[in-house]
Design a protein that fits this description.
It is extended and about 70 Å long. The chain has two domains: about 100 residues, 434 Repressor (Amino-terminal Domain); about 140 residues, no CATH class. It is mainly α. Helix content is about 50%, strand content about 0%. The chain contains twelve helices and two strands.
């Protein structure tokens, strides 16, 4: 059994780093080069990047690492599953390996911040509830929130969303028990963030399509146009869109606690054509 419990970890590189530091307590001269050689790695530089979290840990080294750290079979299986979890590219695969890790971790409730972050990013309901706390007379009451939202959400959805936002420290309770924004930032790996943002934009577009026939025209603004553009101007065009969004927020976003209503602003800028590719002869 390792002196450091692997069941406390959600990242294989962090486990390796802590295990190496633990080894160095007993042998200050034990270097990463020496450990890499012990594990049968041809390059200590590669192992250095693995320990730093800059490269994934290949599963072929699980047995050698297990022997080096005296891991039990169950701990070895946890390490192998942790590697699978860290390499998974979709939220479905992440969730699958999360359940396996949860089964292997005796009596522990793992956070898996990355999973919760994905669920936050993909659903417009999360951002809507955060912004709802900015309304005059906001009430920390799922039924009140449900009545104010144009997004179709059940009380259970709202309660789960509030819990997630509290867990992610994006909302907090003040000394009177009121929900308030915490001004914390999210951190997540790039591949999950990209997938989540794709889901988010799809959900916002679906919401916009739904509301176009639900809301009065004097309370909404929908515009769309097609235009020709030079390829060299695309980066600048994207920059101008971002500048507009920043300027719009600065001019119209109400001070905290002063908003009357919450609005969603979405901007889409995408190609309707693609250059014809030459056929390979």
């Amino acid at each position: 059994m390792s002196s450091i419990s692997i069941f406390n970890y959600e990242d294989p590189s962090l486990f390796l780093r802590d295990s190496w530091n633990k080894k160095r307590v007993y042998n200050k001269n034990f270097s990463l080069r020496a450990w890499a050689r012990q594990l049968g790695m041809s390059s200590h530089g590669t192992f250095y990047h693995i320990v730093q979290g800059k490269r994934p840990l290949p599963k072929k080294y699980v047995k050698a690492i297990s022997n080096s750290l005296d891991l039990s079979p169950k701990e070895s299986m946890y390490l192998e599953t942790l590697i699978d979890f860290s390499k998974a590219k979709t939220i479905e695969h992440k969730s699958y390996y999360r359940e396996r890790l949860q089964d292997l971790a005796p009596g522990r409730k793992l956070n898996f911040y990355e999973i919760e972050t994905f669920h936050f990013l993909k659903d417009p309901l999360n951002g809507a509830i955060i912004e709802l706390t900015n309304l005059k007379g906001f009430k920390n009451d799922p039924l009140w929130i449900k009545d104010r939202l144009t997004i179709k959400a059940s009380l259970n959805d709202i309660q789960n969303t509030i819990k997630r936002l509290l867990d992610l420290d994006l909302l907090k309770l003040d000394n009177k028990g009121n929900l308030v924004q915490s001004n914390s930032l999210l951190h997540t790996k790039q591949d999950i963030k990209n997938e989540a943002l794709q889901e988010y934009h799809k959900n916002v577009l679906n919401l916009a399509a739904e509301q176009i026939s639900e809301q009065e025209v004097n309370k909404r603004e929908y515009n769309a146009t097609a235009m020709g553009i030079k390829v060299k101007d695309i980066p600048r065009a994207k920059e101008r869109v971002r500048e507009f969004l920043s300027d719009f927020i600065r001019e119209f976003e109400a001070n905290y606690g002063q908003a009357d209503e919450i609005f969603q602003l979405g901007i889409q800028y995408f190609g309707l054509t693609d250059k014809l590719k030459e056929k390979i002869q």
